[in-house]
Amino acid sequence: MNIKPHLIFGLLILFVLFLTNQSYSQKKLTISDIYGDDAKFGGESLSNVKWVPGKQQFSYTETNDGVKSLRIYDIRSKKRQKIFDSQQVPEFKTLERERRIIPDSYFWSPSGESALINSGTDLFLYEIGREQLQQLTNDDIPRRDPTFSPDEKKIAYIKNQNLYVLDIDSKTETRLTTEGSEHILIGRFDYVYEEEFDLRTGFFWSPNSKHIAFYWLDESVEPVMPFVNYMPLHNTVRYIPYAKPGDHNAIVKIAVVSLADGNITWMDIGEEIDIYIPRVKWLPNSERLAIYRMNRRQSKLELLFTDIQSGASKVVLTETEDHGWLDVHDDLRFLQKANAFTWSSDRSGFNHLYLYDYSGRMLHQLTNGDWGVRKLVGLDASANRIYFTANRESIFESHLYSISMGSGINKLTSESGMHSINMHPDASHYLDTFSDLKTPPKVRLFSQNGKLVDTIVADKIDALSEYHLTMPEFVKVPAEDGTLLNAAVTKPADFDPSKKYPVLFTIYGGPGSQTIRNDWGGSGYLWRQLMTQKGFIIFQLDNRGTGGRGAKFKKQMYRRFGHFEVVDMVNGVEYLRTLPYVDAERIGIYGWSYGGYTTIMNMLKASDQFKAGVAVAPVTDWRNYDSIYTERYMDTPQNNPDGYRESNALNYAAGLRGKLLLVHGIADDNVHMSHTMQLARELQQLDKQFDMMIYPEKDHSIRKVRSHLFQKITDFFIENL
Predict the structure, then answer these.
(1) Is 664 in the active site?
(2) How many other CB atoms are there within 10 angstroms of residue 654's CB atom?
(3) How many Å apart are CA 26 and CA 19, to the nearest integer?
(4) Confidence band (pLDDT; 50, 70, 90) for 92?
(5) Which H, E and C letters describe 397-424, residue by residue?
(6) What average pLDDT does this structure show over 276-292?
(7) CA 586 – CA 573 distance, rounded (Å)
(8) CATH assignment of the domain containing 491
(9) Which of 19, 59, 149, 485 matches a 20 to 30 Å C-alpha distance to 84?
(10) Is residue 17 part of a domain?
């Protein structure tokens, strides 16, 4: 066949045009797609998942057309069934009934034969086999954290700021404490304990159902923070006790009450009152409590065993840290047959698991190596086998492993990425929520040996196929001391290496955090994709002090916030300047919360590197943040005045040269509005121009107006980069 050259050329042009049209036929993301009321990328998910005690089942809640239902998945049959729905309980409110940290509204009995429903101010008991719903209480007084006794005869809860028990058969209610008041907290916590120690319920049944241990906190010694609601015609103010660095913290005690006679015994936690008690747990024999005692500097953590009859205590184990801090963990598990317990520590340089006997003698170091255990997730007591997640394969990933005494580590997950594990209490099965850079979360059920049983939630989000998304590329950026920092570059789908592109840093930077990981980034990832479609390159970097790389790497940040978060970002800029397709005069930076702080510090201290920045809910002066978090990493202002002065963004306000947008929610009870207000005043006094967006009634998450927020951020960078 004789085809003329000009025809061949014409066919090539048509082919190129075809490919180009195919590439650009992909839809462009919009803010509404990601954050609007009709957002299309949520996908299927499970809510409020709980294993049903004593059964090979798990439960979850589901909402369809405003009707909330409780459903059960049976492992043996692989079938799902509805237990009941909210139409059967007219009083059953939505999960946001109160602005509380606890999202759950149902609780299984220890036998798994009935479920307790906390609806409105009352408790309902649904008996599964009889399909019967009975109302246990009937008044207008809220009951907080209802909890079954292990023998299933009683329910304990907080009511009228005190601890009560309800006898299920007789429906008789008994008050166990009397001291509870507005600022004497029985079985509950102040803001900083909840926020920084991840504590929810402050009372605990003994295994034999005869006693309840509870926290007692006096928060009256703490200063209070005002929060003004500007929406009513006559503004209202609420006050929250909130200890800042160096302030008086709440005084904490631990007590045990006997249900037989109401006698209360106070546990001996020492004479020093300026301490923390971040964890309390019963030993299996119901005769002793295990109590974590931590000094205020959070450099010494002791495990106490206390006798509940006398209150006498014994220090069983002590962890110390000379230069840095100790993280509180939930890896204490008791192996009843062996009279031993598990413990985790980063004393070797990486977080690992250890086995101790009840006297505090170490029996085995269960894991070791230049990698870290992320979390102990399960214990098979019959086989003395422990299940845990770790970054053993890669610091960018998390996998599930098991280990038993005298045997090696067994890896149970296979796909490269992040595996979040929810294991059955008897360790017979586990739910694995998996994702990677290109895969939205999917939930699968496995047996304990890693064999797939069923796919519970698929990773398919149909709308994603309509868009051309690009994957981040992991790169290494050298720090000034030669350390290679982990970073990621995301380029536009139509990237042309002959062009010059503006770059947008999206960062966090806080101690122990990790941004560069092989997992699905959710709405944040999709917004970054939207920005690449608008012609930006996205750059992310984990500075020195972040997590995943061991204690030494992380604890470099100790007592010096605001240093590595700046010098390492500048190293990132220097790396980008070596890339021929980067427009080094058009580099922006964006972050939220601690990322907002990192943004502010770079915009003020490295103003010649960044043309524009957006800081959402930023910390600006660490003296304004809460005591537990800040002192963990910075010590107190009294002990570290230079560190607080050097970390204070207000001291660098004169350095602002680029365009800055400050964003804050007025009702933010985490990073208070005062941070942004104080920086705004400082900039104004220096005659520095900046932009600001304030969200009335919104807290730290600024929810329900995300579409407005991210349209503002997007427009700001388009206009200023």
Answers:
(1) no
(2) 14
(3) 12
(4) low
(5) CEEEEEEECCCCCEECCCCCCEEEEEEC
(6) 98
(7) 11
(8) 3.40.50.1820
(9) 149
(10) no
Is residue 564 in a domain? Answer: yes
In one-letter notation, the amino acid at residue 525 is Y
Catalytic: which of 344, 435, 593, 647?
Answer: 593
The whole-number average pLDDT for the span 91-116 is: 64
- Beta carbons of 354 and 364 less than 8 angstroms apart: yes
pLDDT band for position 42 (50/70/90)?
confident
Domain carrying residue 514:
472-720
Q: Fill in the amino acid letter for 544.
A: R
Which strands sit side by side in the sheet containing 410-411, from one edge to the other? 373-380, 385-390, 399-404, 410-411
In 3-state terms, what secondary structure has residue 636?
A: coil
Residue 382 lies in a domain: no
The pLDDT score that the predictor gives to residue 83 is 87
Q: Of 102, 126, 142, which residue constitutes the final position of a domain?
A: 142
pLDDT, mean of residues 47-58: 95
Burial of 609-646, coded b for 16+ CB within 10 Å and e otherwise, reads bbbbbbbbbbbbbbbbbbbbbbbbbbbbbeebeebbee
Q: Which of 491, 503, 475 is nearest to 584 (CA)?
A: 503
Among 114, 142, 170, where does a domain finish? 142
In the chain, the amino acid numbered 382 is: S
Let me know how long the chain is: 721
| 387-409 CB burial, b ≥16 within 10 A, e <16 | bbbbbbeebbbbbbbbbeeeeee
Burial of 438 (0-12, 13-18, 19+ CB in 10 A): middle
Q: Give which of 670, 671, 661 is closest to 619, Cα–Cα.
A: 671
Alpha helix segments (H runs only) across 25-169? 31-35
CB atoms within 10 A of CB 681: 12
So what's the pLDDT on residue 146? 95
Per DSSP, what are the bridge partners of residue 432?
A: 421, 444
Half-sphere exposure of 15 (CA within 13 A, CB side): 6
593 labelled catalytic: yes
Task: Please tell me the total count of domains within the chain.
Answer: 2
Q: Which of 183, 248, 364, 700 is catalytic?
A: 700
Q: Other C-beta atoms within 10 Å of 150: how many?
A: 18
pLDDT tens sequence across 671-699: 999 999 999 999 999 999 999 999 999 99
What pLDDT digit, counting tens, does each position of 540-572 carry? 999 999 999 999 999 999 999 999 999 999 999
Q: Dihedral of CA 224/230/231/234: which sign? A: positive
- Distance of alpha carbon 567 from the chain centroid: 27
* DSSP SS3 for 378: strand
Per-residue confidence band for 3, with pLDDT thresholds at 50, 70 and 90: very low
Question: 5 is written with which tokens?
Answer: 């050259």
Annotated catalytic residue, options 327, 519, 626, 668: 668
Active site residue 668: yes
CA 57, CA 50: separation in Å to the nearest integer?
9
Residue 280 parent element (H or E): strand 275-282
> Does the residue 2 lie in any domain?
no
d(CA 57, CA 59): 7
For 372-430, how does the pLDDT look when each residue is reduced to its tens digit (9 = 90+)?
Answer: 999 999 999 877 899 999 999 999 999 999 998 767 899 999 999 999 999 999 999 99
Q: What is the DSSP string of 186-198?
A: ES---HHHHHHH-
